[in-house]
Amino acid sequence: MQEWHEIIIPSTPRARQQTEAQIMKIVGDRGFSEEARFSIKLAMEEAVTNAFKHGNRFDKNKKVIIRYSCNDKNFTLSVRDEGEGFDPSRIPDPTAPENLTLPYGRGIMLMNAYMDRVAFSPTGNEVTMVKENR
Predict the structure, then answer these.
(1) For residue 6, what is the enclosing H or E element?
(2) What is the CA radius of gyration of the chain?
(3) Residues 66-77, mean pLDDT to the nearest whole number
(4) What is the full DSSP assignment across 14-45?
(5) What is the DSSP letter of 11?
(6) DSSP labels for 62-129?
(7) 5-132 fold
């Protein structure tokens, strides 16, 4: 059975950094490899930054809800914002030549590249990611 933890933070970089440090300590204590820890940290930074920027539009009064579960087998992270959401299938491929200068899409690409599973809620204002502990 997974034990879930929830942290609610304001849309500020300082809150993100403190929360990431707290979660990364837990991931390290569970014996995740350096490579897995790098992947988790990168994906978490991207997800929370996207929640601040695109979801909450840098409104410090809006919150980001971070839920996570970590055991010896995997790490699961869910990040939800108070925005309207979006349709991830409508985000252009940031690696296509015509999109290289566009200011969006790279965070989702990185999350998909570094995590084992990535899924968005039907409303598009929550992402859930899993990293296996190999």
Answers:
(1) strand 5-10
(2) 15
(3) 96
(4) HHHHHHHHHHHHHHHHTT--HHHHHHHHHHHH
(5) S
(6) SEEEEEEEE-SSEEEEEEE-SS----GGGS--TTSGGGTT-SSSHHHHHHHHHSSEEEE-TTSSEEEE
(7) Heat Shock Protein 90 (3.30.565)
Q: What is the pTM of this model?
A: 0.94
Q: Which amino acid is at 9?
A: I
Residue 66 is which amino acid?
I
**Predicted pLDDT at 1:** 65
Whole-angstrom Cα distance, residue 61 to residue 132? 34
The CA-based angle 42-70-37, given to 5 degrees, is 30
Length of the chain in residues, anyone?
Answer: 134
* Amino acid (1-letter code) at residue 18: Q
